[in-house]
């Protein structure tokens, strides 16, 4: 059975629809996904496929949440509320414990703090609450000397950034995001899903690897005391099952700023469009200099947690180097473990969002994004 493709594309973007349809035709019959893109603030791709899904369906977007969190940080830096080269302890004195006192906000946002988790791990209730995470991390001894190396702070970077935001503004990061970003643009990208929208949520489905893929996953090095285990809370008394994290109503309701966001592809792409382009008569949220600062390479090379080459800006992934070389230098965004992707490419004006329901193999940005992004980027010059 071939799933029907719904939605629209602007003139010149028909190849994106063709690429989406070609991919969907090879997927499982239960595939659900959404694809959306803007160019210079104009929505040019708005597609979805799957039984029961529509453009308004909402999905757990895991680490794509970090993009929303760090758009807030960028706005506060832009207006002078936060300063990147101040020590974190200027805002959050308790963070100085265990040798972390010299760390700057810039290094914290670039995954250089060294506190990817705690020695004993977090409970599910703690992982849903950024305040509890931050309180635990303030007392945690770093796993490497802060500022000397970097590693993906997978489940905690939003709590670290969020505590700085709370100390500087008196508001939670989620509250600032709601007031400054989500509500003004009517974005379907929530950090804390209101009960009124629960019926639109589509629970994340577990990965369904082939036998070969399962063998590859089983062959990967693992251990209860590795940095990866600490960063993904697999060493805790209640090890985190990442695949089901957004299916917990408490996680959805609290919207932890590292992994708890709920969004549609429209919401992802719309947020990044608003960041770099005029949307709805509003000026871009970010000035060119701010977008360039947050998209600039800050941590590039060997990621101690991922054990692989990675590239980060400030809170964002450096999307061109990490995932899509067809994008311009300075493209910034963030992928999510189940396969979601969102980014802005200021040089081309492209803003992109993709969601899917079933957790993708092997985790992180789903491989189909490579095809979709290339098709969007090729079509983008046709739009003035």
UniProtKB/TrEMBL annotation:
InterPro entries from the xrefs?
A: Beta-lactam-related, Beta-lactam/transpept-like, Beta-lactamase/esterase
Q: Which domain of life is it from?
A: Bacteria
Q: Which Gene3D superfamilies match?
A: DD-peptidase/beta-lactamase superfamily
Question: Source species, please?
Answer: Streptomyces bobili
Q: What is this protein called?
A: Beta-lactamase family protein
Ranges for the Beta-lactamase-related domain?
A: 34-356
